[in-house]
Amino acid sequence: MPVVIVDGQEIEIGADERLNCIEAARRAGKEIPHYCWHPGLSVVASCRMCLIETGQRDAAGKISMVPKLVPGCQTPVKDGTVIVTESQLVKESRARVEEALLIDHPIDCPICDKAGECLLQDYHFEHGQAERRADLHAFTSRKRDVGPTVTLFVDRCIMCTRCVRFTREVSGTSELMVTSRGAKEEIDVFPGFPLDNKLAGNVVDLCPVGALGDKDFLYQQRVWFLKREANVCGGCSAGCSIHTEYNQDAVYRLKPRENPHVNKWWMCDDGRYGWHHLHDSARVLAAGRRRDAHRSGHAAAGEEFDVIEWADVVTRLRDDLKAAGRLAVAVSPMLTIEEAWMLCAVARSIDPEAFLSVGHVPAEGSDETFPGGFTIRAEKCPNRKGVEAVVALFDPAGRSWGDLLAHVEAGNADAAWITGGYPAAWIDESTAAPFASLACVVVQDLFDSPLVRHAAWRLPAVGFAERSGTWVNVAHRAQTFGQAIKPPAGVWPEGRLYWNMLGRRGLYDPGAVRQQIAGSAAAFAALAGEIPATGVDLRMGQLA
């Protein structure tokens, strides 16, 4: 195996790996500071922060060093490469680069959104000069509106050009450019072409300083107050790995989490800003049972729901559905596989012949793929494949939402349990009309819909950041995630309700359910062990 020597430590690299000095040093636990380099973008070696000493060790063990510092981002490693990251020469170089950047950088950290996660701050304290040798000038912070979601603070920019390269290489839209040259160069948009592509928010993540600000997050929260949870985006079937950042059970922003198998380093703006429905005042916030719920026929729009305690929901809901007769259940693709499995188990415990189907699958347009390979999926739900596989465990017929509608219209059901969790409107009056004839309809959703007019039970659902479990994306990759924030007061997550309806004791444990599913189905066998942060590919099983 090829060997690279980093500060005297030998590390092995793969024979076919193409690493630069920054990546090789990380293998040895050494972080080489850098601004302009990013693993998902082309190399320009412009910031000069990653200058290091390097050389080559020959077969006889003799080391010959390059006579000057070289940029680590632009220098590939091979067998025998020697990297020195902590010499006095390297330290002096870093300090001078930091000093040069800070001469023209406004000292407006107290009002900058990037404070607390700014590389210029971090590198200054770690690698900068002990004292500032330049005079302090009153700061300026010229703002420039470059698009509907991004603000440019011109004077903060250190000209790393990550944002420019992103729009050219990943989004392929090329709105950003460098104007002028030398001491007057600035980032700007081409006249008449604002930064308005569906991946625009990623330039804020890429910016190592506070030059690019997210208008949605600007001045909302200090980053040191935020907590973060590894999560999965529920906006489409791509299943992007994300971090949900929150404080006091309020989400403030979503950021992409690196996953080479799914979304690499990026996420789309639809997902990035698609969390506001979690705090919408129109959400269903209590379990309700309509007065005279057993009366058959259309429920009048003026009838109200009585609020029911969740402990009573567990028993009374089962009794109402059992009394109604033949049950049909729509298992929403917004549910996790653990929740879907428990819902199917609950339905079959009420009616052993219950009609099980996948719920409504929302879709918009067609898949959109960008030059950098990132794809926004037309299917606007995160777990269709997972729910399909779970439903197939109980009924191999593999029925869809359309099949359930036909089943109800044909008069083959007396009761229906429709799960939703959709962040937007998804059903109209005409589609909901056939449910008016049923004796008992249960609607479990985030918001009211035309279907609620015919419901005997209205149950709240939770959003992506308020649940825990596993989703399976369009590429058959299963990702497990935890609950980031608590749901609003009075709302039980679906998993908690189903867990209690199955008579299980203690707190809802998605891990225990997952182990049970994995032990009983070959398609989910890969979920039996510890699941890495990047998820596991289920294609080796029967999930097709």
The percent range for helix content is 10-25%
Q: What is the tally of beta strands?
A: 26
Category from helices, strands and their pairing: alpha+beta
Identify the strand order in the major beta sheet: 16-15-23-22-21-17-18
- CATH fold assignment of the largest domain: Rossmann fold
Arithmetic mean pLDDT: 93
The domain count comes to: 3
Q: Whole-number radius of gyration?
A: 28 Å
Shape: elongated
Please give the CATH class of the largest domain. Alpha Beta
**Helix count from the secondary structure assignment:** 13
For the largest beta-sheet, the strand count, sense and barrel status come to: 7 strands, mixed
Q: State the end-to-end CA separation.
A: 38 Å
